[in-house]
Specification:
3 domains; about 325 residues; alpha+beta; Elongation Factor Tu (Ef-tu), domain 3; single chain; 4 helices; OB fold (Dihydrolipoamide Acetyltransferase, E2P); four-stranded antiparallel β-sheet; 14 strands; six-stranded antiparallel barrel
Length: about 325
């Protein structure tokens, strides 16, 4: 009885793992169990690492709230232009003899820029001076004829009066009268020839003076379109020889403003702009004119607006493209 009540010994883990249904089955089971435990440990470590990373403290950049101005602007692009630009041309056709101004030259009003060849005009001037002298001599000659025919006519009239209109004959009187009238007509024609020759002389002298091209303003030469020896033709339109810009220390900026924004612009508003040549510099400007005439740019109705620009250092050049911001309101 006591033997039957003996307490059975419980198998430990090693015994369980070592048991199997056949030879070597315990070792295989143990090998698989170890790998399973390692896999669970790896998964647990990965989950723990990911959770810990997501729980890192986020950093925020803060700044104290403060009051500031709200500025409303209208943006546009435009082109810098001289305040006054003049195209200098030639009213005469001819050959350029000398060019006395070049690109970037500073010129003054009345300064010689170029000269045309004058040989042909000088010849014509001499020719018409001679024509005038010849016409004046002819006038003097005809005046003598007028005096002569006038004296003859007076003599015949006096003789007829003394003879009771009997001698000389009426035919002689009519002939003397006709001769005197022809002499007077010749005198008038000769004087007209003198006037015509003088007018032609003045024309050629004026043309001769136009062979010298002068600067009409103080400024700087932007373009020169001629070379010595070049032929210019002014038959239909005066050819442009030079382009001169007035003082570039002040310029104007022309921008096209969209019709949706033009109502917010007015004279005197301040603006700033930049140019590609100096992207780090912001230049000031001020609206001087918002023009009423419209034009269509890329299918959009725009209005040309002119801004005044100071350019004391001559950094800005005609033709530069500017990106403009006009301040229309500030709160």
């Amino acid at each position: 009885m006591m033997n039957s009540l003996k307490t059975e010994k419980k198998p430990d883990i090693a015994e369980i793992l070592s048991k199997g249904s056949g030879p070597g089955q315990g070792s295989k089971f143990l090998y698989r169990a170890v790998w399973l435990i390692l896999a669970i440990a790896v998964v647990w470590a990965a989950v723990k690492w990911g959770t810990g990373k997501n729980n890192d403290k986020l950093e925020y950049k803060t700044e104290t709230a403060q009051k500031g101005n709200l500025v409303v602007t209208v943006a546009a692009t435009g082109t810098l232009q001289p305040t006054n630009q003049v195209d200098v041309g030639s009213e005469l056709s001819g050959i350029i003899r000398t060019v006395e101004a070049d690109y970037n030259d500073i010129v003054e009003t009345g300064q010689v820029l170029a000269r045309l060849d004058t040989v042909k005009l000088e010849t014509q001037v001499r020719q018409y001076k001679a024509s005038i002298e010849s016409a004046l001599a002819k006038v003097m000659q005809i005046k003598a004829t007028v005096r002569e025919t006038g004296n003859e006519l007076a003599r015949i009239r006096e003789s007829r009066q003394l003879s009771g209109n009997r001698v000389p004959s009426r035919h002689d009187l009519d002939a003397a009268l006709a001769a005197h009238e022809r002499a007077l007509a010749d005198e008038t024609a000769a004087k007209a020839s003198v006037s015509q020759a003088k007018a032609m002389l003045k024309t050629f002298e004026t043309d001769l003076s136009r062979t010298i091209i002068y600067s009409p303003i103080n400024g700087i030469v932007l373009k020169r379109s001629i070379e010595p020896g070049q032929t210019v033709a002014a038959s239909l339109q005066a050819p442009i020889l030079f382009t001169i810009a007035e003082d570039l220390t002040r310029m104007q900026l022309s921008v096209d403003i969209d019709e949706a924004d033009v109502g917010r612009l007015k004279d005197g508003q301040n603006a700033v702009f930049t140019v590609d040549g100096y992207p780090e510099i912001t230049f000031p400007a001020k609206i001087t004119q918002v023009r009423y005439g419209s034009k269509i740019v890329s299918g959009v109705v725009t209005y040309q607006t002119i801004l005044d620009v100071a350019n004391p250092d001559l950094l800005l050049r005609p033709g530069m493209t500017a990106t403009v911001k006009v301040t229309v309101n500030e709160i």
